[in-house]
Design a protein that fits this description.
The structure holds 2 protein chains of 2 kinds.
Chain A lengths: L1 E4 L11 E7 L2 E8 L7 H5 L7 H6 L6 H16 L7 H30 L2 H22 L8 E2 L2 E2 L7 H23 L3 H7 L7 H6 L5 H4 L7 H4 L20 H25 L18 H6 L1 H12 L7 E9 L2 E9 L7 E5 L1 H13 L4 H11 L3 H5 L1
Antiparallel strand pairs in A: 1-2, 2-3, 4-5, 6-7, 7-8
Chain B lengths: L6 H35 L15 H11 L10 H18 L8 E2 L9 E2 L8 H22 L3 H32 L4 H6 L4 E2 L3 E2 L2 H4 L1 H14 L11 H4 L9 H26 L13 H20 L7 H30 L1
Antiparallel strand pairs in B: 1-2, 3-4
Helix pairs in contact in B: 1-10, 1-11, 2-10, 3-4, 3-10, 4-5, 4-10, 5-8, 5-12, 8-10, 8-12, 10-11
Classes of the chains: A mainly alpha, B mainly alpha.
Chain lengths: 387, 344
């Protein structure tokens, strides 16, 4: 029997379509079809000025928006050669935001994953905690889902008052909540039965499919971009890269849970290094807008203001790719500039796309219920896959 | 007035009417309770707009369902498609008819002989419950098959696979109780549980048959298709399973059947293991209050479980049913039989 699972199905994370060939409930062969959420973001970006691309790329991976923009920004900054001029404080804030983003994304993953395996309440708990992170986003930029707070050359504006208290309160509260989720799932017999030995992928296959992030770490491939190619000064932070060995759904679950703990650890260190007030961009007014008092009082400032808001800035010709460790693994933007104020081409490397390719391999021979568990464990975001 | 219309007959008719309405109302109440308990478990408020604390919410939902269009898929087997929910509900409602929920009342001396608080006292009551609740699965299988939709079919298949894996252990757990009571009538089973050991512990079969109770309740959860064994409708896997194609009140009937089944299984479990309407402090004729309390406690357990546990995989339930539940049930039965013979 051929069953069309998706694109409209409660558990295919949006619009992933799986064509399953079934015998009873056993999956004989599977075919993953993507493209139902293609929005042409990469093409649209070619019509936008560099700074305007940020809100666009944030909408690709809508569960980890700020890690998208971070990847894009780092690539652009490398091409412009201003990487080293970014103030220390801005780097720490970016690290903090990236880690909070990772937690927020993993919370949605855990919630939906548990929901799909039938533990409905866990989803509510996860979204309750995520709500606090969205509140942080709202504080930062007034926008909860896609704040566009990170900008090329720095940040949109300085940290809001009470930022430290809010984030600190969250970081204090969160580990105990994480233990709560673990109490519900980690040692739960049903949970273990549903996830252990399900969707196993060998080390060789993982490498062959070029899977990264938690999927790779669950088979024992200790590849974390934050460790392997540190950016934003990650080498100065203390954290572990959790790995497991079995490469099944259960191990991916454990890896991600541990990653959230490590993210809390990094975020705490970052928060300590950030002063409540200070520089928030590179103060090169050809790239970032000058402060308003300069615009209103100085001729130069006014001209720079007009230039930034009408033409933007140009990026020297060339190409760059700076990978970052997104919530789903290595995530980066390959950008090409022809020297104008608009990108010539941007190309995202979405970890979810590669995970989608491996889904059939993981589910063949399993049962329908396993298909759901496996899709959940890959944590694909179709907006990211289809772009 | 014709001679056969005696106060007893009228009382019986009223009782039948009352029991049926009580069941439907209790399932409405259960829907409310489920949503409320689930909301509190999940840190939400739950329905609180319609009526006091949302108590009228289920009625609003039913009203909405009644107003919806009844859709029958073109490729469906129309007769069976429309019949399936009726079978489900009929089986669910009928099964309760042999469950006693109180001793007997004379309605202040009006009735002679006194009226027993049950629709009918069949001397093989346990078998009747067993037989009729198993009928409910036909509704599900037929619904899955007649919809002519793949997800529905899978739901129906799962349901039948599920039934064969728990039904035997279910029956064996019952058999142990029957041995202890020496009767197949639910009323006598309950009566046999009266009294106390050492004036403290009630003589409930729960304490003689703890294992049997667990088996019965587990199988009961599977029987009513409730989480963690809710495979036939497993929303996240099969969209909505056997009732994917149903709309309007036919869907409502399945919904009703599910909740009535829960009430029935809990009521039967109360009668078999928890001493039915027997309890301290209350006079005999108010025994139904104890019955309600015990049944509600079991129903709460149902809800609690659903919102806490993940779902099994259906082959795992079969494995669990055949490899663990069944052997344990057999051992339980043999030990009980031996003890009954040995100790008289």
């Amino acid at each position: 029997m051929t069953v069309n699972m998706g694109p409209q199905h409660p558990s295919t994370h949006g619009v992933l379509r799986l064509i399953l060939e079934l015998s009873g409930e056993t999956v004989i062969s599977a075919d993953a079809t993507i493209g139902f959420l293609h929005t042409g973001i990469e093409k649209t970006a070619e019509q936008k000025k560099w700074q305007q691309v940020i809100p666009l790329v944030e909408r690709m991976d809508y569960l980890g928006p700020q890690s998208n923009s971070l990847g894009f920004i780092l690539s652009v900054e490398r091409l412009m050669g201003i990487e080293s001029k970014i103030p220390e404080r801005v780097r720490h804030i970016r690290v903090l935001i990236a880690e909070l983003q990772r937690i927020s994304s993993h919370l949605v993953w855990l919630g939906t994953h548990a929901l799909e395996i039938g533990a409905v309440s866990v989803m509510m708990y996860c979204f309750r905690e995520r709500e606090l992170l969205l509140n942080v986003n709202e504080m930062l930029a007034g926008f909860r889902m896609f704040p566009s707070y990170l900008r090329i050359g720095g940040l949109r504006e300085d940290l809001p008052p009470d930022f430290h208290e809010t984030v600190d309160a969250f970081l204090e509260r969160f580990p105990s909540k994480l233990t709560e989720y673990e109490n519900l799932l980690t040692k739960n017999q049903i949970w273990m039965k549903r996830t252990r030995g399900v969707g196993v992928l060998s080390k060789e296959d993982t490498i062959a499919y070029s899977l990264v992030g938690p999927l790779a770490r669950a088979v024992g491939i200790s590849y974390d971009v934050r460790r392997a190619f540190p950016y934003l000064g990650y080498e100065t932070y203390e954290f572990d890269v959790p790995t497991r060995t079995h490469g099944d759904v259960y191990d991916r679950y454990l890896v991600r849970i541990e990653e959230m703990r490590q993210s809390v650890r990094i975020a705490k260190q970052a928060l300590q290094r950030i002063t409540p007030r200070g520089v928030f961009d590179i103060q090169d007014y050809r790239i970032v807008p000058p402060p308003k008092d300069k615009v209103y009082t100085e001729m130069e400032g006014l001209i720079q203001h007009f230039l930034i808001y009408s033409q933007g800035f140009t990026v020297p010709p060339g190409e760059a790719y700076v990978p970052i460790e997104g919530p789903r693994g290595e995530h980066g933007f390959y950008i090409v500039s022809d020297g104008s104020n608009r990108p010539y081409r941007i190309k995202s490397r979405p970890p979810g796309l590669y995970a989608c390719q491996a889904v059939p391999k993981m589910i063949e021979g399993g049962m329908i219920a396993d298909v759901i568990a496996v899709i959940g464990s890959t944590d694909v975001v179709m907006g990211d896959v289809d772009r | 007035m014709p001679a056969f219309i005696t106060p007893t007959v009228i009382a019986h008719l009223v009782l039948i009417f009352a029991v049926m309405n009580m069941l439907v109302l209790s399932s409405a109440f259960m829907v409310w309770m489920e949503r409320k308990v689930c909301a509190y478990i999940q840190d939400r408020l739950g329905p609180n707009r319609v009526g006091f604390e949302g108590l009228l919410q289920p009625f609003a939902d039913v009203f909405k369902l009644l107003l919806k269009e009844e859709l029958v898929p073109k490729a469906a087997d129309k007769l069976l498609f429309l019949l399936a929910p009726i079978i489900s509900v009929a089986a669910a409602l009928t099964a309760f008819s042999v469950v006693p929920f109180g001793t007997q009342i004379t309605l202040f001396g009006l009735l002679d002989p006194p009226l027993r608080l049950e629709v009918t006292d069949v001397n093989v009551g346990i078998l009747v419950v067993f037989a009729i609740t198993s009928m409910g699965v036909y509704g599900i299988v037929l619904a899955g098959w007649s919809s002519n939709s793949k997800y529905s079919l899978l739901g129906g298949l799962r349901s039948s696979a599920q039934m064969i894996s728990y039904e035997i252990s279910y029956g064996l757990a019952l058999a142990a109780v029957v041995m202890l009571a020496g009767s197949l009538s639910l009323r006598e089973v309950v009566m046999n549980q009266s009294g106390y050991w050492w004036h403290l512990i009630p003589r409930w079969y729960l304490f003689l048959q703890p294992l049997g109770f667990l088996i019965f309740f587990t199988a009961g959860v599977a029987e009513t298709n409730r989480a963690p064994f809710d495979f036939p409708e497993a929303e996240q896997e099969l969209v909505a399973g056997y009732h994917t194609e149903y709309s309007s009140m036919s869907f409502g009937l399945f919904f009703l059947a599910e909740y009535v089944n829960m009430v029935t299984v809990s009521a039967v479990a109360t009668s078999l293991y928890l001493g039915g309407w027997l309890g301290p402090f209350l006079p005999d004729w108010l025994g139904w209050i104890w019955f309600l309390i015990k049944t509600l406690a079991l129903l709460f357990f149902y809800v609690w479980m659903r919102w806490t546990l993940p779902r099994y995989r259906y082959d795992q339930l079969m494995e669990f049913g055949w490899k663990y539940l069944l052997p344990v049930a057999i051992v339980n039965l043999i030990v009980t039989a031996a003890l009954v013979i040995w100790l008289g």
